[in-house]
Amino acid sequence: MTRHETQPFDGQKPGTSGLRKKTRVFMQPNFLENFVQATFDAVGGVQGKTLVLGGDGRFFGREAALTILKMAAANGAARMIVGQGAWLSTPAASNLIRQRGADGGIILSASHNPGGPDEDFGVKYNMSNGGPAPESVTSAIHQRTQEITEYRKLDAPDPDLDSLGETGLGEMTVEVVDPVAAYADLMETLFDFKALRDLFDSGFRMRMDSMCAITGPYAVEIFENRLGAPTGTVTHATPLPDFGGMHPDPNPTWAHELMDEMMGDAAPDFGAASDGDGDRNMILGAGTYVSPSDSLAVLAANAHLVPGYAGGLKGIARSMPTSAAVDRVAEALGLDCYETPTGWKFFGNLMDAGRVSLCGEESFGTGSDHVREKDGLWAVLMWLNILAARKMSVAEIMADHWARFGRNYYSRHDYEALPIEQAETMLGDLRARLGDLVGSEVEGLSVASADEFAYTDPVDGSISRGQGFRILFEGGSRVVLRLSGTGTEGATLRVYLERYAPEPDGLDHDPQEALAPMIAATETLVGIRERTGRAGPDVIT
Ligand code: G6P
Ligand code: ZN
């Protein structure tokens, strides 16, 4: 029997990046099946199509992959290209979709959220360009989840996901591929691997923390096997279902082991970490933390030193909450710079239209048009290639960059797991007062403008409203507030703080000190601590 009756579940609305829920929610009978069938239906069915399938190795990933394969077979798909063991990093999945000319793909991951039976799971659909489904598709999926009455699933033994090669599942072909090889080959086309081998030969020391998540096998293959970095350069290199208890989010809070090493006396020259599904990155030098916004700006300013970008960039895009550091580089290079809402999917149209080749977000995401997802190891290789070409340390590169462009002091303060109503009321009150704020003085700062960000996609004209509150102060400082679209528990309030300092104003202050006036102004304007009773943010990046 392939047809199974079902009833809709509430809450199958994809967020910033697919559907994310507690794993046990996904494990309920029919929950995953409903969402997958709704996805197939919303993209016009999968009859005769080829899809890519894989995930970050988290708990329930293999079971979910087996279910999806049987559903794809029952829905008439021609071929499923699956990463061995149901493993594929997000950028590797994006690459495979593009390289193999697949019709789309399904990625099983909750990205940087912890994994395990009591943690998070997620399912995301990507389009034939290799990028996340746009809002028109995710809304159609959501619509379909609300009216679904049956799904199709083949009653068949589990296909073998561990042996490379092709097997049949009903009429469909299951092709199990090495999850790493095609991605590592793509990296060889973009970067100067010879220069990087020489760098490691000369004694350059690097620490790559894969946080027990999916980049482990990719990083070992690329850095240790192909580039000759010493064995052990990559730590936490084996993907584990619960990420070894780690919270695989590469930021100073969650990647604290790496932070401690990089800030210590025996720090290696270069450090990096990536997240659960391998699309995020954090960059560090000995004693130096590079903020994601600064990292994007440095990559933009130095991309011409990397073979894959030697011909220059087409344009640059950043999400609205990301600092304007990259805008200054774009201006100096005479490049267009786009400001999009949070979420990698907004970059896809710009890349497909050939308007931009480099994109980045403050949320530890950087990437280029080599795929249609952000790409953690790509960013690490960009930095390595730039370090090799410039023969400078990370700290020297930052100092040089700020001396040339000025510094956008930047920090993000997160208040996690707030009661949803409390968070919404707080921002609702701010929305109601936005107009009155302009021209007012807060903690010695005058408000130059205040609005709620809306974006009109220049390629397809689609409009996205309600994308975060922006309060700009005279002199170029600003505060942005928005609720996270990726959390699974309560509401997470993100407060993005930024202050521009040209060289004479001092380039080497502690960011929290440099941003103290904006922090105080935000508290006066919004009253976060007062209303939530929290003493301070849970995470500072
Ligand atoms: C995911 C998306 C990113 C986005 C980030 C932050 O990682 O892929 O594009 O910037 O989430 O989302 P949030 O809504 O939690 O701030
Ligand atoms: Zn991710």
From TrEMBL:
A Pfam family: PGM_PMM_II
Region annotation (Disordered) ranges: 1-20
Matches recorded under SUPFAM superfamilies: Phosphoglucomutase, C-terminal domain, Phosphoglucomutase, first 3 domains
Entry annotated with the keyword Phosphoprotein: yes
Keyword terms of this UniProt record: Carbohydrate metabolism, Glucose metabolism, Isomerase, Magnesium, Metal-binding, Phosphoprotein
Gene Ontology biological process terms, A to Z: glucose metabolic process
Cofactor(s) listed in the protein's UniProt record: Mg(2+)
InterPro entries: A-D-PHexomutase_a/b/a-I (IPR005844), A-D-PHexomutase_a/b/a-I/II/III (IPR016055), A-D-PHexomutase_a/b/a-II (IPR005845), A-D-PHexomutase_a/b/a-III (IPR005846), A-D-PHexomutase_C_sf (IPR036900), A-D-PHexomutase_CS (IPR016066), Alpha-D-phosphohexomutase_SF (IPR005841), PGM (IPR045244)
Coiled coil regions in record: none
A GO molecular-function descriptor: phosphoglucomutase activity
PANTHER family recorded: PHOSPHOGLUCOMUTASE, PHOSPHOHEXOMUTASE FAMILY MEMBER
Family affiliation: Belongs to the phosphohexose mutase family.
Protein name: phosphoglucomutase (alpha-D-glucose-1,6-bisphosphate-dependent)
Lineage: Bacteria, Pseudomonadati, Pseudomonadota, Alphaproteobacteria, Rhodobacterales
